[in-house]
Amino acid sequence: MKEIRFFRLGTDDVAPIAAMETAAWGPLGASERTIRRRFSLGHTMIGAGVDDVVAGAICFAETTDDPHDTAKFPKSFADYSSMPTSAPALSLYVYNLGIRPEFRGTNMARGLLREMIEYGRRVGARWVVGDGRCPSYAGVQDGTPDKVLRDEEFRQTIDSWHRTGKIPSTRAITRDPLLKFYRRLLDCEFLHLAPDFLPEDVASGGYRVIFAKDISQGGAQLI
Ligand SMILES: CC(C)(COP(=O)(O)OP(=O)(O)OC[C@H]1O[C@@H](n2cnc3c(N)ncnc32)[C@H](O)[C@@H]1OP(=O)(O)O)[C@@H](O)C(=O)NCCC(=O)NCCS
């Protein structure tokens, strides 16, 4: 594996970011216009570069909001990913972590999460927050680079969470490979289920699982 360079992305990088988005997310990838808008809102994007290619990125907004305030939490991905930034930052609301398929299975995801956490600590934030996809709810459809099978038991877990509002066990939630990935790397807590968050994400049944990690505790070795 060639050397991975982590760096702050800016408005000069909009075209390569959009290319990476399409490669990582298929039709769910953000357009150049959307990326420009996110920059204009003051969002931060950290890239992972290999040679001249943007191989992956993590994107987030700093906010004074507390993710535990479920009533105030954005109700859709459109709102979540277009929040204006506010200071002093209590939380980083991360709405995108994506890696080009050919660079997956490396330490890149871990590196991007680590860079984001270091950034959060520098600005004095307490929480890093994510909207976790759960593609095993329906299984990944054609047209995206991922392959995840539908998992009936996981689907029932999500449906029951939606019906009752009662948070399932971490074991039941982490049957999904992506939620397991976040739990494994961040040791995050799962906070609430967001239905109809991104209906276009058919694999996840439109759901997102909102999670948070307290980065104010512990030493340097979070991940
Ligand atoms: C999520 C993503 C950044 C992870 O990067 P990665 O390089 O694959 O991550 P790692 O190799 O460190 O870890 C992969 C692990 O997560 C799981 N995983 C993550 N994404 C997965 C996916 N789309 N399909 C299947 N498993 C996935 C795997 O089970 C794997 O676990 P294992 O090591 O026990 O097999 C990358 O898959 C990606 O860009 N996916 C598309 C965009 C996306 O879904 N982003 C997350 C938004 S919530």
Question: Could you explain how this protein is built, in words?
Answer:
There is one protein chain. The protein starts with a strand and ends in a 9-residue tail after the last strand. The longest helix has 15 residues, at 108-122. It is built from seven helices and seven strands. Strands 1-2-3-4-5-7-6 form a seven-stranded mixed sheet, sandwiched between helices. The chain has a single domain (5-214), classed as Aminopeptidase (3-Layer(aba) Sandwich). The model has no long low-confidence stretch (mean pLDDT 95). It has 223 residues and is of the alpha+beta class. It is globular. Coenzyme A is lined by residues 24-25, 97-99, 104-106, 108-110, 132-133, 146, 148, 177-178, 181. One of its GO terms (molecular function) is acyltransferase activity, transferring groups other than amino-acyl groups.
Write a compact overview of the structure shown:
With 223 residues, the chain is α+β, with helices and mostly antiparallel strands. Helix content is 30%, strand content 22%.
What's the structural blueprint in terms of helices and strands?
Elements: E1 5-8, H1 14-25, H2 32-40, E2 44-50, E3 53-63, H3 77-80, E4 91-99, H4 108-122, E5 127-132, H5 152-164, H6 170-173, H7 177-186, E6 189-194, E7 208-214
Parallel strand pairs: 4-5
Antiparallel strand pairs: 1-2, 2-3, 3-4, 5-7, 6-7
Coenzyme A is lined by residues 24-25, 97-99, 104-106, 108-110, 132-133, 146, 148, 177-178, 181.
